[in-house]
Specification:
This protein is an alpha+beta fold and about 220 residues long. Helices cover about 35% and strands about 20% of the residues. The longest helix has 24 residues, at about 165-190.
């Protein structure tokens, strides 16, 4: 169980910031990460160089946004993170300015098509949230709308966001979204990318459930 000061979660958020920087999904101070435990949230502080983030650069806030731990002001996207927690009961949120995702957020109007079945982990086609100034209630609301039924979204002319039940999963989804953006980018460079239709996506879900796709099992167990 999380302690009152979320020391474990603060360490996890700092480590996630450093990993995202190592994976080149964030640069400098651009991006923010949070993890929730009950009615408190550990969130990266504003102005932190994410590649060097430490536990002391992660602030703890209540669900009302009030600082209850740490010495630094939280990220300017605090309302966005809290909105995701309130509406989708998430356990962690990752917001990046990943290069491919950010580039596509500048040219795609509505969504990133579902061009690969792995994108079903994001909910299918990834919507592009309407543009609004960073750190504003308008941006938070636009992104929350885009996340309906999804675990990831692009943010027009801004970046990307993912959420999950825990921080490891949220980071993996951020990596997956950036990969999917790269796949689409390269496919579009040589032709018109084909998107999986609803029947094809449902067939993937059925096959994954039947075969327990993504989990290990004994070699003699087979697929049946």
């Amino acid at each position: 169980m999380a302690g009152p000061n979320l020391e474990r979660e603060r360490e996890q958020v700092a480590a996630a910031c450093r990993r995202l920087a190592a994976e080149r999904l964030v640069v400098g101070t651009a991006g923010n990460v949070s993890a929730r435990a009950g009615d408190r949230v550990a969130i990266s502080a504003t102005g932190v160089v994410l590649a060097d983030a430490t536990r002391d650069e992660v602030t703890v806030v209540g669900m009302d946004g009030q600082v209850v731990g740490g010495e630094l002001a939280p990220t300017s996207e605090l309302d966005l993170h809290l909105g995701v927690y309130r509406r989708y009961d998430a356990g962690a949120v990752v917001h990046t300015h990943a290069p491919m995702a950010t580039a596509l957020s500048c040219v795609l109007d509505d969504e990133l098509p579902c061009v690969h079945y792995q994108m079903l982990l994001l909910g299918g086609p990834v919507r592009v949230a309407r543009y609004a100034t960073f750190g504003t209630p308008e941006l938070a609301e636009n992104v929350l709308e885009a996340l309906d039924g999804r675990t990831g979204a692009l943010m027009a002319n801004h970046g990307a966001i993912t959420h999950a039940s825990d921080l490891d999963q949220a980071v993996e989804l951020a990596l997956l979204l950036e990969w999917a953006c790269g796949v689409y980018w390269h496919a579009a460079a040589v032709g018109s990318p084909r998107a999986l239709d609803e029947d094809q996506r449902q067939a993937v879900v059925t096959a994954a459930l039947e075969r327990r796709y993504g989990t290990t099992r004994p070699a003699d167990e087979g697929d049946g």
